[in-house]
Amino acid sequence: MTTTYTLKQLADYLGAHFEGDAEISVTGIANLAKATVSDLSFLSSKQYEHFLETTQAGIVILQKDFEPTRALNRILVDDPYLAYARISVLFCQRISVPQGIHPSAVIDPSARVASTAMVGPNCVVGAHSVIDDGSELLAGVVIGAHCHVGKNCLLHANVVLYHGVTLGNQVIIHSSTVVGSDGFGFAPTRAGWVKIHQLGGVSIGNNVEIGSCTSIDRGAIDDTIIGDGVIIDNQVHIAHNVKIGKGTAIAGCVGIAGSTTIGANCTMGGFVAINGHLEIADNVHFNGGTIVTKSISEAGHYSSGTLVQDVKTWRRNAVRFGQLDQWIDRIKTLEQADRS
Amino acid sequence: MTTTYTLKQLADYLGAHFEGDAEISVTGIANLAKATVSDLSFLSSKQYEHFLETTQAGIVILQKDFEPTRALNRILVDDPYLAYARISVLFCQRISVPQGIHPSAVIDPSARVASTAMVGPNCVVGAHSVIDDGSELLAGVVIGAHCHVGKNCLLHANVVLYHGVTLGNQVIIHSSTVVGSDGFGFAPTRAGWVKIHQLGGVSIGNNVEIGSCTSIDRGAIDDTIIGDGVIIDNQVHIAHNVKIGKGTAIAGCVGIAGSTTIGANCTMGGFVAINGHLEIADNVHFNGGTIVTKSISEAGHYSSGTLVQDVKTWRRNAVRFGQLDQWIDRIKTLEQADRS
Amino acid sequence: MTTTYTLKQLADYLGAHFEGDAEISVTGIANLAKATVSDLSFLSSKQYEHFLETTQAGIVILQKDFEPTRALNRILVDDPYLAYARISVLFCQRISVPQGIHPSAVIDPSARVASTAMVGPNCVVGAHSVIDDGSELLAGVVIGAHCHVGKNCLLHANVVLYHGVTLGNQVIIHSSTVVGSDGFGFAPTRAGWVKIHQLGGVSIGNNVEIGSCTSIDRGAIDDTIIGDGVIIDNQVHIAHNVKIGKGTAIAGCVGIAGSTTIGANCTMGGFVAINGHLEIADNVHFNGGTIVTKSISEAGHYSSGTLVQDVKTWRRNAVRFGQLDQWIDRIKTLEQADRS
């Protein structure tokens, strides 16, 4: 299965101008260094500019006002990286699967699956749930009762939605991810932990993508809420009653504890850990590995932790960290002596 | 499906006194701020006390000696949060599934499934395994050979137990969690890593709850052991030969390396990382994000790491951390000069 | 099912000398303290040497030049830990499953499953994929289109391979692990994130083992590559375009961000977090919890972070860390005063 596009076709798709041979065609995307004449490539950062001297790419996407020193078949756009993103879908090779319900799927009689939806082998759809137009459930997906999967969603193999989970339209969820598992709520007693049954659901907006092996818990009383356009990577933990504002991006291995509210258009690097019951403002950015133990009310860029070092140097410094307050006292003593 | 309880019914269920209209009824639980007349609510913390002035809740659970300034239909208990936990189960809406074995399930002829147990669509139960009275395996659960699932357990969709895993009674395991995968044991050789086959199993006590997307490895020789009443959140990693004492609570994204023993009634915040071959005493509490590289023999509260700051301030401090031992030497030099 | 081996059989299997009763037999492996006369044991570390005085083990594996003070049935080898690893497979009790394809499996007509391979209940194998000789897919495994599973691989229950994933020979993947999910690639625009479709695949070498609940993303353009002999634990996140050199060992809860290249024979403790677009040399070792934000060009041992302390002491030190650069300035002021 080969996909072929000409320079003119790609420029038209982007609504962009081009220069060069309108009929030259490409069958894939490659970076500038590896591209052959049958590849499209793009320059998205100055640091790769020198590859333009030698690239074999059949077509290159360039910034509008960029003047290459060689003749290149090129598409001229405001944002080459975005143009690459928009073109990437054209070369995406996922095997199309037939519409309809695979005979091995188990669908509750009270569920409704749109005729243009696809339910793959060994999927299970619970009572009163709806799978709307154009959505695809790949193999082994389990949907609990009273769920709503919006239009044109894609749930990869072995995704699980518990009961009472609502997805907007154009939501993508990757394999082994779980949405709607019980929040970690227990009342302590002398006889042990007493489970607090989690009565809320999960509400996920439109155009959300969630990576693989990620957990999003249902709310204790109200819903856990993921806003429109949020993107979440693999191995992420989102606890009960968390609310995440529109357009926020959450990288791999992040964990957000219960009842925390995250603003819109935030970004979190990998391994960010956010305590429960906090409020994080819009446009807050956390470096990877930041441990957040207080609310952040001002937009900005935040971090915690220490930097990597060779282990001998690090150990000496780490030991000194453990005595730091005492050493500060000794600085104070010196200052007093100095003043007297 | 609506569940309705009167004030008298709820008070009787809790074995508690009440004041107000015995016949007023509620159909759900809500927090004080959002509750309507058909909701039960509760006051579990002084910080929400002001909501009592305005709450519309039909019934409120209050601490015994608390005197509200308004007439409220109320239930009087020692611990309102615990009372809420105990009542939460009454309003839990999980669709009940029929007892018995779904026709799509694959059960080894040598396995024994109690007549009061439920095995859902596409489940697999291996040779010589037992699913005891009242236990439920939701869709896609895979149970290896020689497992024992005790009474009234609930295994959510796509849980996997490898062979030789034993669960006590009233164990809940959430979706995509894996119990009994091989421990990470390899002998180094010049030709590469040689796998140490993991011959132990996993033994899980009574009244244990385990979140979604969590891994608990089987032991190398002896079993990995999770004590009675332990609660474990999502995205947790428990390595081979770990032993966890009764009633310990482990929050999301925690990792415990091989052969470490954790005492009873410990608590771990999210992202706690514990090295292998350590001993942690009873009643030890770790802040979220603590990296534990030594045994802890005394009960208490422990932590590591640094606090979140704006990135510019943080970077300056982090650079100084990397020079800390040298600066301490300079303090010592100043002290010597000061003394001379 | 009991497995029995005599001293002579085990020594022959290892190609090693033995002393004692050639016909004494054992049925399992135990550590020195717990072993009974029907167990094999081994001494791999001086710290356990005193157990030799009292062990009941029927056979003990000892270092060649080690002279026990008691008569023991023993096997003499260069490396007792390696000998234990090699013998562990003999006592591994995994129930053998029949060759062939379970009737509930769904195999695309264009896929090829070797006659000596095993495909378990509810597995799905996509179009044009190959399952080669001797490989086993346990229950619920989903293989996308255009995958190649090499010889003698073992994919545990509910593993998912997306399309275009290639495994070498003797690859083991544990349950709920996902290989080939989309990399976290999006172009930012004012209207939100635009998905970059991930056109690469994943290529995994020979003799690789991957733990449970781990995610390995497909490449954006080229493949994500895992070299021969790499071992990866549970709950690991490997992002798109990462390359991992031969023989590298990655412990639980590690995350490696996109386009980073890791050398050969590296080791990472748990919770190591490595930024994107970095180069890590061969033979680099990271302590658990290290956050790596720069490339490492020299072999060696690296770390970051601080050490665990009681929370009161820690908090004082952590507050001082947040002021560290200012205190360093005060040291400088003292030094200047001292010099003047």
Short description:
Helix content of chain A is 13%, strand content 30%. Chain A has 340 residues and is an alpha/beta fold.
Descriptive account of the structure:
The structure is a homotrimer of 340-residue chains. In chain A, strand 22 (186-189) and strand 23 form a beta hairpin. The first copy, chain A, is built from four helices and 40 strands. Chain A has an eleven-stranded parallel β-sheet with strand order 8-11-14-17-20-25-28-31-34-37-39, with no helix packed on it. Chain A has a ten-stranded parallel β-sheet with strand order 9-12-15-18-21-26-29-32-35-38, with no helix packed on it. The first copy, chain A, has a nine-stranded parallel β-sheet with strand order 10-13-16-19-24-27-30-33-36, with no helix packed on it. At the A-B interface, strand 22, strand 23, strand 38, strand 39 and helix 3 of A face strand 4, helix 2, strand 40, helix 3 and helix 4 of B. Strand 39 of chain A pairs antiparallel with strand 40 (309-310) of chain B, so a sheet runs across the interface.
Keywords:
4 helices, alpha/beta, eleven-stranded parallel sheet, 13% helix, 30% strand, flat, 340 residues, homotrimer, ten-stranded parallel sheet
How is this fold's topology laid out?
Three copies of one chain form a homotrimer.
Chain A lengths: L4 E2 H8 L2 E3 L5 E2 L1 E2 L9 E4 L16 E5 L10 E4 L2 H9 L11 E2 L4 E2 L4 E2 L4 E2 L4 E2 L4 E2 L4 E2 L4 E2 L4 E2 L4 E2 L4 E2 L3 E3 L4 E2 L4 E4 L4 E4 L2 E4 L6 E3 L4 E2 L4 E3 L6 E3 L4 E2 L4 E2 L4 E2 L4 E2 L4 E2 L4 E2 L4 E2 L4 E2 L4 E2 L3 E3 L4 E2 L7 E4 L5 E2 H11 L2 H16 L1
Parallel strand pairs in A: 4-5, 5-6, 6-7, 8-11, 9-12, 10-13, 11-14, 12-15, 13-16, 14-17, 15-18, 16-19, 17-20, 18-21, 19-24, 20-25, 21-26, 24-27, 25-28, 26-29, 27-30, 28-31, 29-32, 30-33, 31-34, 32-35, 33-36, 34-37, 35-38, 37-39
Antiparallel strand pairs in A: 1-3, 2-7, 22-23
